[in-house]
Amino acid sequence: MDLVLELLIIYFIANVISFILFAADKRKAKMNRRRISERRLLSMAAIGPFGAYAAMRVFRHKTRKTKFILVPFMIVVHLVVVSFLIYKFMI
């Protein structure tokens, strides 16, 4: 399998896991159960920001927390890095 395709699959899976973690935390919050730490959520958002941001919007979760304003900026960082890599290796 091509290395680029493998990396895309891994990146997709990271975003899915990020989405699932945010969804699970929202569910736990509604049930008054032990929550997933903000550190873990933000760490996963750094790896899979698209999934984290999607979950934040879909479940209206962590949208008022100041720390989580970083998630859209993480998306921008990922887009800049990917754009640079495409530019670097396609030219």
Could you characterize what this model shows?
By secondary structure, the chain is mainly alpha-helical. It has one domain (3-90). It is 76% helix and 0% strand. The radius of gyration is 15 Å and the shape is elongated.
Please supply descriptive tags for the structure shown above:
0% strand, mainly alpha, 91 residues, 4 helices
The rounded distance between the terminal residues' Cα atoms is 22 Å
What is the share of helical residues? Answer: over 70%
Helical element count?
A: 4
Secondary-structure class: mainly alpha
Based on Cα principal axes, name the global outline: elongated
How many beta-strand elements?
0
> What string gives the helices and strands in order?
HHHH
Mean pLDDT: 93
Strand content: under 5%
Low-confidence stretches: none
Q: How many whole angstroms does the radius of gyration measure?
A: 15 Å
The biggest beta sheet reads: none
Number of domains: 1
